[in-house]
Amino acid sequence: MGQHQQLRVGTHAEYQFQSVISRYCQVVPVPRQEDFGEDFVCATLMSTDEMVLQGIRFRVQVKSSLAALTRPIGGWRGGRCDVDRVRWLLGRDQFSVAPDPLLLAVSDPKAGTVDLYLPQHIWEARADAGTPTELVYSSASPPALGRGRRGPYRNFTTKKKIPVATMRRLPPDSGDGRKWTIPLGPPIISLPQGETALTSEVPSWFHRVMREWAKVEQLNRAMANLNIPLAWHYDAWNTNEAPSEDDLLIRAFWSTAPDQNLQQTEDLAHSLLACLVGNYEAQDLRGLARRVRGARDLLHDRVMAAHPARVRG
Asked: Could you tell me if residue 145 is inside a domain?
């Protein structure tokens, strides 16, 4: 006879997540012995008249409750420093930033629901600081904007100094001594356990929502890999609806992060300005083109002086 073993709450949560999410997208569990930060690899599905095709790929880390999701990451845990988890999330030092979005899922076996969150403001910590010693996701919400929308979330991203006494207990390479609080906001997607009216639209609505969120997340991840201190985020959205471009904001940072790549930043800015000049001229907006051309030429001269092979045309 086999031995009886009580399943962990986290295991129940993962079983439920796979059962619920599989009606909306392709889902592949990561073997437990290889589970180092992500539990599932998923992809949205798109239907045509003849076949179903794979859409947006994303990874998921599953928790059994919002309380488990908002436990601090890094800092002093169990008698040791756990800052490598922060480095992995932010792509610092020997770690790189994976291109596919990493979503956080709360799969509550009691409620029978799965909520998907995207911690988009984590890239502000990546662009504005070195390596935070501790990260914590926050479920706090700003004031309501109407129609279930809230914002601005950028005001709920905070960084505080960790007490000196605590830092003295940590090894020398334990980050910059700051604790970042990353607001999650409402879930971007909420899925019921049973069949509901939502499933009649699967997979089109699920893919449509994920596609808009993935665009911004992939852009943030590309900027992080290039060490360009820019971050995009949505300030307001409705669960199970594609976010609006009107709520998309960009933030620029100019702190002393050790690996900021100013050369790449200048190249990107030059290319974007050149794109604007060309488009303004094509639309006969010559006044705007003339103003932007001055900034483009200034960057062109600077980049060419430092790296003649980097800019052409």
From this structure: yes
